[in-house]
Amino acid sequence: MEGEGVYVPAFRRKEKTIDVERESWDELKRRINALVNKVSVHNLRHVVLELFEEDLIRGRGLLCRSCLKSQIASPSFTDVIAALIAVVNSKLPSIGDLLLKRLVLQIRRAFDRNDKPLLLAVVKFLAHLVNQRVACEIIALEVIHMLLQKESNDGSNAYNLSPPYRIRSKRTAVFKSRQLEFISPEEERADDDTKSSEKDKVLDGGDSQLPV
Fold first, then answer.
1. 119: CATH
2. Torsional sign, CA 57, 61, 65, 71
3. Cβ pair 70, 81 in contact under 8 A
4. Which of 33, 36, 87, 150 is most buried (CB neighbours < 10 A)?
5. Please, which pLDDT band fits residue 147 given cuts at 50, 70 and 90?
6. Would you say 112 and 124 are in contact if contact means Cβ atoms under 8 Å apart?
7. 192 lies in some domain
8. What single DSSP character describes residue 76?
9. What is the pLDDT of residues 69-103, one digit of tens each?
10. Is 60 exceeded by the pLDDT of residue 174?
11. Which domain does 116 fall in, by range?
12. Which residues contact 98 (CB under 8 A, 6 or more apart)?
């Protein structure tokens, strides 16, 4: 311990400051991980109150990482973790935004790597966040569109969840929105035959009206 009046070099003062910051960071990480790991349906309210006592602005990345790891390790507690994030997001929207960005990246990474267990877990987490109104429904629609593609990027169709149907969009005049209508191949061929027959009738009728 340095006494008063003893000169301390600048590099030693800097090292001491770095050590103090690292210790405080590690302590914040341990407290956030402990709170996320012990959250349940019965103590959700108390965990939220204890969590708001921490420096969540500084540790928002730690909270998002801890929630993602806990949810992937225990998908059965997805609803509890999503409820926790929903409460935190109501006070600190930046945490919900950061979590959604990391979650979307995780979904894309699992889809590209053909990792089905991880993909199911993170998609389940996203679905609960949509139910909690943390995420917008458009994100869920984009994920559905990705899963309904013919093939994944690596050429496998492991996540081709769509049946042998073609999706056709139909615009309604009342709501002015796009609705999705599933058409089977048989109905599509019948529809094409009907259109071709109607076209032939129109052409035949037009030819009969031509002057001789």
1. 1.25.40.180
2. positive
3. yes
4. 36
5. confident
6. no
7. yes
8. G
9. 999 999 999 999 999 999 999 999 999 999 999 99
10. no
11. 10-153
12. 60, 61, 64
84: nearest Cα among 56, 114, 45, 53:
45
For residues 39 and 144, state if they share a domain.
Answer: yes
Residue 73 near residue 103, CB atoms below 8 Å: no
What is the rounded distance in angstroms from the CA atom of residue 187 to the CA atom of residue 23? 67
| One-letter identity of residue 148 | L
Report the number of distinct structural domains present in the chain: 2
Q: Are residues 147 and 171 in the same domain?
A: no
Is the whole model's pTM more than 0.90, yes or no?
no
The total number of residues written for the chain in this structure: 212
| 28 three-class SS | helix
Residues 6+ apart with CB under 8 A from 134: 82, 85, 86, 89, 96, 99, 100
CB-neighbour burial class of residue 114 (10 A; exposed 0-12, middle 13-18, buried 19+): middle
Q: Is residue 65 part of a domain?
A: yes
The residue from 103, 129, 153 where one domain ends is 153
Tokens 């615009």 correspond to: 171
Mean pLDDT in residue range 151-173: 40
What distance separates the 2 farthest-apart alpha carbons in the chain? 120
Phi, psi for residue 178 in degrees, rounded to 5: -100, 130
Return the structure tokens found at 85: 């994030």
Residues 141 and 195 in one domain: no
Quick one: 145 and 171 in the same domain?
no
